[in-house]
Specification:
Strand content: under 5%
Oligomer: single chain
Helix content: 55-70%
Structural class: mainly alpha
Strand order of the largest sheet: 1-2
CATH class of the largest domain: Mainly Alpha
Number of domains: 2
Number of helices: 9
Order of helices and strands: HHHHHHHHHEE
CATH topology of the largest domain: Tetracycline Repressor, domain 2
Number of strands: 2
Distance between the termini: 76 Å
CATH architecture of the largest domain: Orthogonal Bundle
CATH superfamily of the largest domain: Tetracycline Repressor, domain 2
Length: about 240
């Protein structure tokens, strides 16, 4: 039987087993870091949770800091995959902005531990060296790419007249923070209501759309009560 040229690139049984072991270690580490924090978590505890020897961890990772960063790297890659899949080329810039927020929500609901670690439990890894430093540099570049993607969409909205000239980088970071906050309120709640987070973000989409429309239409802030007794946010 002839061997096709690409067969050598296919993972063999040993490579697949190694990949499964590394994945199990990352899964266990993610849970341990989230439940106990970075400092108290030991490689022994992670090894026990993953049902592997401590030596197996050192085979795949340079140490605890490298393993922690591997967990973070996977989380960022997962978010990137959700966002990339959501950004269909036929969408308008505003629709792409909404799709990005929806993708972030789906990522957080599908991978709540990864979201919580990435958004609220990051450790300072600025002093790492060796393989961990290389991994940290990749994570930093990936996060900046995600923010740059959001910034670019806001800039496109300005370019096509879907919003007046605004500071796109600052607006992007505000939106990122707002999404984090809304999702966190749901995930950290002791009694989350089914579907409530989606409903809250739907209201957020309506507010964004109304706000952008008002800005494009030349609306000005209005603090006077409206007819129903509530304050109106914009006045044409």
């Amino acid at each position: 039987m002839k061997t096709l040229p690409h067969d050598a690139a296919l993972p063999n049984r040993t490579q697949r087993r190694k990949a499964r072991t590394a994945q199990a270690i990352i899964e266990a580490a993610e849970q341990q870091f989230l439940e106990h924090g970075y400092a108290p978590t030991t490689l022994e505890a992670i090894a026990e949770a993953a049902d592997v020897a401590v030596g197996s961890i050192y085979f795949h990772f340079a140490g605890k800091d490298d393993l922690y960063l591997a967990v973070m790297e996977r989380a960022v890659a997962q978010l990137d995959a959700y966002e990339t899949a959501a950004l269909a080329p036929e969408l308008t810039p505003r629709e792409r902005l909404i799709a990005l927020g929806d993708a972030y929500l789906r990522f957080a609901l599908d991978h709540p531990r990864a979201f919580r670690l990435m958004a609220f439990a990051q450790e300072d890894m600025s002093g790492v060296a060796g393989p961990a430093a290389e991994r940290r540099a990749r994570i930093d570049a990936q996060v900046e790419m995600l923010i740059a993607r959001l910034t670019g969409i806001v800039s496109q909205m300005v370019g096509v007249g879907q919003t007046p000239a605004i500071d796109a980088p600052r607006a992007a970071r505000f939106l990122w923070g707002a999404w984090n906050g809304v999702i966190a309120l749901h995930l950290f709640s002791h009694t989350p209501v089914e579907g409530e987070i989606a409903a809250v973000l739907a209201e957020g989409r309506r507010l964004l759309t109304a706000g952008f429309d008002a800005l494009v239409g030349g609306a000005t802030p209005n603090t006077s009560p409206s007819a129903d007794g509530e304050e109106s946010v914009f006045r044409g």
